[in-house]
Amino acid sequence: MDLRWQMAMLTMRARRFLKNTRRKFYMNGNETIGFDKSKMECYNYHKRGHFARECRAPRSQDTKHKESIRRTMLIETSASSALVSYDGLKGYDWSDQAEECLTNFALMTYSSTSSNSQVSTDSNCLSSCLENSKILKEKNEQLLKDFRTYKKYAITYKTGLESVEARLLVYKKNESVYVEDIKILKREIYLKEVAITELRRQLELAQKQKDEIQLTVKNLRIHQRI
Q1: In the 8-state DSSP scheme, what is residue 28?
Q2: Where would one find coiled-coil regions in this protein (predicted)?
Q3: Does residue 49 come out as left (phi exceeding 0), alpha (psi in the -120 to 50 range) or beta?
Q4: Are β-strands 81-87 and 31-33 bridged in parallel, bridged antiparallel, or unpaired?
Q5: What's the Cα-to-Cα distance from 139 to each of 134, 135, 144, rounded to whole Å?
Q6: Rounded Cα gap, residues 150 and 181, in angstroms
Q7: Among 34, 62, 114, 185, which is least packed, fewest CB within 10 Å?
């Protein structure tokens, strides 16, 4: 009921605005609401096809002193044909349209009691839209909650990554130290191997000298017995 009342009020306001401005309007982007100039009569020159303000004939001086002459003319619009009260000096009177609009509103109010009325359809549509809006709001809240959770995870992972990178940097520094230590140890091992080789050579030489001395002593004993 409120929707139809608002539509009726908007119709009345639009017609009043049309009366004041005399401009063309469009319905549904295609249909034009305006005047059929072929049925208009100029009250200055009394010819059809144009308004008095568009008349090129000299303005009659008697017209200024004449009283307002009211005529009733048939105006065709894109929606319907209506009788419009024409005031020769002041323009067009849409009061009949306002009364007709109120009558139509009364009929619309009566028809709104039907179960198949447009108001019921709009109400169902509004309920469906509200339900969909509620569902979308819940989904949006859930997505925001998930986003906050994942953001916390990202911060935790970033902190862990920074810790790992710091450890890796320490390991790289230690690796260079370990490499130097390994080189020193390898050199020491090499030197020790050289020393061991020399000691073995000296041991073999000493063993040979020992054998020679023992042989000499043995020979001397044999000669002494003889």
Answers
A1: T
A2: 196-223
A3: left
A4: unpaired
A5: 9, 6, 9
A6: 45
A7: 62
